[in-house]
Records
---
Amino acid sequence: MLGKDMDIGEVVERSGLPASTLRYYEEKGLIRSTGRQGIRRLFDPDVVDQLALISLGRLAGFSLDEIGKMFTPSGPHVDRELLLEKAGEVEQTIRQLKVIAKGLLHAAQCPAPSHLECPKFQRMMRGAVKIQSEMRERR
Amino acid sequence: MLGKDMDIGEVVERSGLPASTLRYYEEKGLIRSTGRQGIRRLFDPDVVDQLALISLGRLAGFSLDEIGKMFTPSGPHVDRELLLEKAGEVEQTIRQLKVIAKGLLHAAQCPAPSHLECPKFQRMMRGAVKIQSEMRERR
DNA sequence: CTACAAGTTCAAGTTAACTTGAGGTCAAGC
DNA sequence: GCTTGACCTCAAGTTAACTTGAACTTGTAG
């Protein structure tokens, strides 16, 4: 166990995140340092994976607080229902992003002056709008 | 043309966005009101579709400024290369979200005390990490 | 005609997620 | 033993995207 902990500079390199962010995340309780060597933090190599997970979560639109609830086994157990719910949200997001990607690709080719005038584009958007209003109603 | 423009309350209803947001978007140049009736804004019904598009864009992780550049034909023509690039970004995001969704579903079922200890979970995350570091390198 | 609901403006406030800067600590190399 | 570079703390600053509040305007219903 001794000797393989990393100091913050190494975590910065491996994660691509600035040191200030790592300190901030630690303060927020999203990651933990294993201890100190003098004044310097020491990190377990696993922290790099955790950071990747956090970045992915942010990408998925979760707040740091939500991520904390999902991945730190804060209580006696992780809330499985919450996880399922979040998985559903992500899947929903994926569906919408597919519409967007298609829309962007189309817009890049479409000769219509404004995309909002192109019937194909309009149809795609109408689909997305439908999804969105369904989402709104579910709240 | 006369008579079918909507006032802000109707847009609020149809879009689900608060009036303050609509005014803010107008100020930013993301949407336009067709004119005024006295002091009150009037909106073309199309604005509802535009708003849905904006919401989708935000969901995809674009800033309001980026959305402005992508969808308002500000200059003589829309920048097609930019659109293609953005489409690629969205597709990349979709790939990563799939990993997350899978991860969340797995985490909801996995009996391991901490997900970070589950080998299956670790493998999934490692895949995601790889994608992320590839992305970082591309900048 | 006047009351009211639904608009309006404009400045200031809010929240999340960081970043920056000033000033201090410490181990290592010369 | 002194300088340097990598780290530290803590308070304050930043940015995006809105929201809130106070004070003003207007079309419409009674």
Note: DSSP finds six helices and three strands in chain B.
---
Amino acid sequence: MEASVTNMLRDKGFKVTPQRLAIYSVLAATKSHPSAEMIFNDLQTLYPTMSLATVYKTIDILREIGLVQVLNAGEDCFRYDANTDDHPHIRCMSCGRVDDMDGVDVSGFVHTVSQTTSYQVTGQQFYFYGVCPDCQGKISSN
Amino acid sequence: MEASVTNMLRDKGFKVTPQRLAIYSVLAATKSHPSAEMIFNDLQTLYPTMSLATVYKTIDILREIGLVQVLNAGEDCFRYDANTDDHPHIRCMSCGRVDDMDGVDVSGFVHTVSQTTSYQVTGQQFYFYGVCPDCQGKISSN
DNA sequence: CTATGTGCAAAATGTTTGCAGACGA
DNA sequence: TCGTCTGCAAACATTTTGCACATAG
């Protein structure tokens, strides 16, 4: 996995730096869809001198070479996902977490919808909103 | 239509002001899903003294009473839609326009997906990305 | 060695807030 | 009249940019 990031960067003419590998590692190791600031905070211990600007610049490269996808689940910031498969996301309106919705096959729906539009469809993003299991528990126990 | 906005506002304890009616009118009269700034610009001629802050505050009220829905199709700003029906949106990656995808029944897909998650689902938003008919023409003729 | 990348600080952008005067009910 | 609303300006949060120094290749 790490090796392939190195190769992907080199192949596209980007230099391989510790910062870039570290930022990708954070994204690859989590399912929490962190924002730039969350990534930055995660790296403060290991890379205390890293700047937020570097996080943004690196994410832009990772997106460009197809290693991360960009999410906006209606928040005031973007979140990033190293899982670039087509999968819906769901945000808890109570605690704000954003989860993957695995095991949902979107291809049939996407195909059907693509037929009904005069656009040439190149991609899509599905967001669901609701209350996560943890917050359901908190609400019912209050 | 206008009358119902008046009533909706009054019923919820909000005052009816020319600014609020004007902002809703702009949204109700268009399918272009304007951002706050686009609404503000639209109203410059008729309401030269209106402030952007008023646009934001009003939109928040309209959202709260269910008269508009908030969109974020991956841009750096929010867009607003007075059509609160469940319908997907599609953004042209070339010119940036955001269109409705009418005539798509999402209920079956939503129902299926809702079954597969432990979240309690309360809503959803589907965004497609592609190239609009106008831009397809431009690209092929260049 | 050279071109690209990093980190910092400043700028830009979109949105929110506080408050004095205006106005709807 | 009274409480809410407007418009302004300042504050805020996120993201982008410019540039001197550092570093990958």
Note: Residues 10, 15-17, 35-37, 52-53, 56-57, 76-78 of chain B lie near DNA strand C (CB under 10 Å from a C1').
